Amino acid sequence: MYIIALRMLTGDRAKYLGLVFTIAFASFLLTNQISIFAGIIQRTASQIVDVVDADVWVMDPATEYIDEVKPLRETDLLRVRGVAGVAWAVRLFKSLPRITAPDGRFRQAILMGLDDATLVGAPHGKLRLGTLESLREPDAILIDYAGYRYFWPDGELELGRTMEMNDRRVRITGIVDASAPFATFPVVFTRYSQALRFGGRERNQMSFVLVKAAPGVAPATLAEQIARDTGLVALTGDAWAWRTMKYYLQNTGIPVNFGITIGMALIVGVAVMGQTFYLFTLENLKQFGALKALGI
Predict the structure, then answer these.
(1) Which of 2, 113, 124, 218 matches a 20 to 30 Å C-alpha distance to 270?
(2) C-alpha to C-alpha distance for 149 and 283, rounded to whole angstroms
(3) How does DSSP assign 282-296, residue by residue?
(4) CA nearest 163: which of 107, 92, 95?
(5) Are 182 and 44 in contact (CB under 8 A)?
(6) pLDDT tens-place string over residues 137-176
(7) Do residues 206 and 73 touch, judged by C-beta distance below 8 A?
(8) What 3-state class would DSSP assign to 277?
């Protein structure tokens, strides 16, 4: 019976090919939009994903996502270090200063200030050119490859180029493959003490505290302990990434826009397939009756 049904379905080549094309196009549109949506949302947490040294992020309770940060007090670092189960805790600075090339072109940049002593938070294993230790040189920065190519689209990669960041001279000592951010800004890494000069001055400067759990201590348990003892928000890297992505899902039009496209693709695909099968059934009622009369 199934073989007869397939032969009847493929008997009208035009309808059969139209049905296959509709299913293929609807499936392509669905998977394409879903993959783009997932890629965009993952980009919102790119700076979190790049930090592989720390287990827990500590931040001010008012901070909702990584692109809008309320600074912590310097004493908060000492409070976090005093929590049982903390192996070490270091500073992390994040801001959005303006970076300018010698030819006058400029862009807003994502500036990450790493702990001076340990350089925790650096993109380990993603260096294209240069070394992490070069950050210990005066005015040294690492810039991501996409940001470098924005200012110098042609030619070989070259270290030692100078730029300005908020009217202060900086020198490129390394090029990294940082994860692509949500906004197409260059990603720049430098030491914490230098980042404070490049990013402007406020009364409080520290954006986050990065914490490593002591051996045998679960990061999630340590995060809860830090939150209880300090009154700050402490999240594991995964939890902080999901919180950032959730913020964009709830406060931007991204889900609605992609949802409309995905919904339309699903509706159109189902409607066309349903109509094609319905017409196929109507056109073959006599054949179905004859087969039924034969006892099939």
Answers:
(1) 2
(2) 61
(3) HHTHHHHHHHHHTT-
(4) 107
(5) yes
(6) 999 999 999 999 999 998 899 999 999 988 889 999 999 9
(7) yes
(8) helix
- Report yes or no: 99 and 165 within 8 Å, Cβ to Cβ: yes
Tokens 């260096």 sit on residue: 127
Nearest-CA neighbor of 110 among 93, 94, 124?
Answer: 94
Give pLDDT tens digits for 109-144: 999 999 999 999 888 778 899 899 999 999 999 999
Q: What is the distance between the alpha carbons of residues 78 and 96, in angstroms, rounded to a whole number?
A: 26
The pairing of beta strand 110-114 with beta strand 187-191: parallel
What are the helix and strand counts (H, E) for the chain? 10, 12
| Residue 286 C-alpha from the chain's centroid | 58
Per DSSP, 62 falls in state T
- Of 163, 167, 171, the closest CA to residue 200 belongs to 167
Structure tokens at 67: 């692109």
Report yes or no on whether pTM surpasses 0.70.
yes
| Structure confidence at residue 88 as a pLDDT band (50, 70, 90) | very high
In the chain, where do the E strands start and end?
A: 56-59, 86-95, 98-100, 106-108, 110-114, 127-130, 140-144, 162-165, 168-176, 187-191, 208-213, 233-236
